[in-house]
Amino acid sequence: MVLDLLRYANLGLAFFLELGVLVALCYYGFATRKNWFAKLGLGIGLPVIAILIWSAFGAPGAAWRLNGFWFLFLQIVFFGSAAVALYSAGRRRLGVVFALLFVLNIVLIYAWGQ
Fold first, then answer.
1. pLDDT digits over 34-45, tens only?
2. Is 83 in contact with 97 (CB distance < 8 Å)?
3. C-beta of residue 75 within 8 angstroms of C-beta of residue 58
4. How far are the Cα atoms of 18, 26, 32, 34, 105 from residue 12, in angstroms, in the given order?
5. How far are the Cα atoms of 23, 38, 101 from residue 16, in angstroms, in the given order?
6. Cα gap 36→30, rounded to integer Å
7. How far apart are CA 48 and CA 102, in angstroms?
8. Which residue positions in the chain have pLDDT lower than 70?
9. Could you tell me the pTM of the whole model?
10. 31 touches 90 (CB < 8 A)
11. At a CB cut-off of 8 Å and minimum separation 6, what does 37 contact?
């Protein structure tokens, strides 16, 4: 019973990490540029591109869902981009925490076969 609760919590963490990617990319776009046109372009464009890529290749109901190594590679790039974005936008601790939470989440997902 406790293990089931931890598994559900891990799936919840995965969902919130997905949302965190969008927030981190948006924050990066608005925080790192001085020109408002660039802020809007990156602050809105980066999350939209991430949504399109994840919904096409990574989401559970994706049309062309990747498997095996390529899915793991997509996860590393997708979630790693958020950690790098936070780190390079000056939120270094938050970027490191995000990366560590992703590593914990992915290890548990593969260990529990989720």
1. 888 989 999 999
2. no
3. yes
4. 10, 21, 30, 35, 10
5. 10, 27, 11
6. 8
7. 21
8. none
9. 0.89
10. yes
11. none
